[in-house]
């Protein structure tokens, strides 16, 4: 397990066990830079949008994935994020393990 981008986040890298899974990242080169798109997006209506960049799926060929990056959040962070989600009203938030996924 490796440290994540914030104290409440950890990365668990495992060999890819999904046949046909493609890598999620493709290097930006001079040859494909003109295909790059960007936009502010939010995962939910309750979150602030952040700038994201991507290539349209059919514009570039992604290599096969060799590893999967499982991103785990601390129990405390999952509870914090869940508490501000309207769908969480009335749910038991104490059932989360020490680390999990959102």
Automatic annotation (TrEMBL):
Domain of life: Eukaryota
Alphabetized PANTHER family for the sequence: FLAGELLAR ASSOCIATED PROTEIN, PTHR38666
Protein name: Uncharacterized protein
The species this protein was found in: Guillardia theta (strain CCMP2712)
